[in-house]
Design goal:
- The longest helix is centred in the middle third of the chain and has 22 residues.
- The chain has three domains: about 210 residues; about 50 residues, Roll (Membrane-bound Lytic Murein Transglycosylase D, Chain A); about 160 residues, Glucose Permease (Domain IIA), CATH 2.70.70.10.
- Strands 7, 8, 10, 11, 12, 13, 15, 16 and 21 form a nine-stranded antiparallel beta sheet that branches.
- With about 475 residues, the chain is of the alpha+beta class.
- About 25% of the residues lie in helices and about 20% in strands.
Length: about 475
Amino acid sequence: MLSHKQALLVLLVLLLTACLPQGGNLLPAALSATQTSSPIPTPSPSRPEYNPGELVDYVAQSGDTLPALAARFNTTAQQIREANPVIPSDATTMPPGMPMKIPIYYLPFWGTTFQILPDSQFVNGPAAVGFDTEAFVDSHPGWLKDYRAYAGDANHSGAEIVDMVATNYSVSPRVLLSILEYLTGALSQPVAPSGSYPLGEVDYTHTGLYMQLIWAADVLNNGYYGWRTGTLTELEHLDGNIERPDPWQTAGSVAFQYFFSLHDSLEQYTRDIGPTGIAQTYAALFGNPWAVDQPHIPVSLKQPELTFPFAKGDTWAFTGGPHTGWGSLLPWAALDFAPPDVKGCSPTDLPALAVAKGVVVRSEPGVVMLDLDGDGNERTGWDILYLHIAASGRAKVGQILNVGDPVGFPSCEGGTATGTHVHIARKYNGEWIPVNSAISFAIDGWIAHIGSAPYQGTLTQGDQEIIACDCSDAASHVKNGK
């Protein structure tokens, strides 16, 4: 039985819900035990079986590219161009809000049309600027505000752990807090769940809240960037059922769909991704995300000019083709370069250099983040991540670097590494920019291409080709300049 106060609150929430677009709901996670008695929401509409090549209406979303749209709608980029002749030949990202016609070829098992979250609210980008995780956690009565654990290099509070993961993986802290509340009542329940796997990933390498959040962020990014690049077009559920995300879906919604598909039964999964699932918890904590959606990827985004992270005239080895920017899954946003004549993790006296002018906004064990727009915030504009930078000689926060200035010395510090090298990756407005996107990873005229597996791939310039190899053989050597 609901108390009189709870009943009034549920009634108020249901009235407010009727005013929210996209099926948003404000019912707090603290009342999750009463949700089963709430009215069943109206099912989202399903898609018809379109005729082959039938033109359907689509409104471009932030970050959409023609190759990804072609993969989602089971068509080709050329056919999309023919249906939309106004698209320039050199277009990369589509203008957010632009009406389009897309030829569609029906595939069975399309998923729900219900959208959980706009992409701008998923990444740790402009929408997260000014959000104070610690203050937010402290304002709620749940167990997270008193939680402390060893994470990284020291003891940290629950809010600090959330921020660490949000920063490294570039997933909004609001997304991580919503997952924690939805699965563990972290903001509303006084007692933390028992056991070492609060988010449900039972794996000895991911024990405790910090490692569980790392797993969650990695998986969420895998779903987000798989949809963003068109490489993830179907989900396989635990019972073997196949689901293809609705072609109109947002990457932020598919991130959650992928996350919940890994552990939950089909019945529970349907609740998770529906109006009374994670979307309801997010709205209860932070309000209707669609009301504050501001597209974060502009039309025809272009990478600024970048140089190699080593000196003119020098030859380094291209030891790592496209692989994860941070973590172990997608996106493949990073490249690795190693100085010559270095064995294993031995030190080098050859520094990694600034690939563009910028200001150092983060300098911590193994990491330097270079902010190219100079505003001092890595959630906005172009940023370059340097990983495996040695502590000695590492550039300091606030330091302004010109092209070719030392960032620090390559090493094995800051994560798993088989040898001394520097790892570089791009972000724009908090979004990792994958190598296999419409925005080429171009360095001094060399273009990076993915391989069939992470760390494989090539650099090409005209008819020249450099093949990535951690063996540092001659085929992997690339010279900066002629």
